[in-house]
Amino acid sequence: MRVLTRATRLFSNLLRRDRVESTLDAELGAWVNALTDRFIAAGLSREEARRQALIETGGIEAIKENVRDARLGQSIETACQDVRHAFRSLRRAPGFSILIIVTLAVGIGASLTMFSLMRGVLWRPLPYPEPDRIVTIQVDARNVPSAGATRQELVGIRTSSRSFEQVATIDSSNATLQYAGEMEHVSAASVTDDFLPLLRVRPAIGRLLDSRLDAGAKHPLAVLISGELWRRRFAADPGVIGRAVRIDNIDMQVVGVLPAGLRLFLPPSVNNVEQIDVWLPDRNDPAIPYRGVPLIARLRPGVTLDHANAELQVLAGQFARDYPDRYTGANAWQASPFDRGSGLGASFTARSLHDDMTRDIRPSLILLTCAVVFVLLIAYVNAANLTLVRGAMRRRELEIRRALGARTFRVVRQLISESLLLSLVSGAIGLVGAHVGLQAIRLLSASYIPLRSRMEIDAPVAIFALVLSALTSVLFGLVPAWRLASERSDHRLRVGRTQTMGSDTRKIQRAFVVAEVALSIAPLVCAGLMLRSFVNLMHLPLGFDPAGVVTARLPLDTTKYPNVEQRWAVLRNVVDRLRVVPEIKAVSAADPLPLAYQTRRRVGRPDQPDVPPILATQQFALPGYLRAIGTPLLEGRDFSDSDIREQRNVTIIDAGLAKRLWPEGPIGRVLSVYRTGWRNDMEIIGVTGNVRVTRVRDESIPHFMLPYGAYPSSMSLVVKTEAPADRIGPLIQSAVGAAHSERAAFEIRPMGDYVSESIGDTRFILFVLAAFAASSVVLAAVGLYGTLAYLTAQRTREFGIRLALGSSVKALVTIVIREGIVLVGAGAGIGLIGIAAISRGIRELLYGVHPFDGLTLSAVSVLLAIVALAAAGVPAYRAARIDPQTSLRCE
Question: Interior CA angle at 79 toward 78 and 80, to 5°?
Answer without folding.
Answer: 90
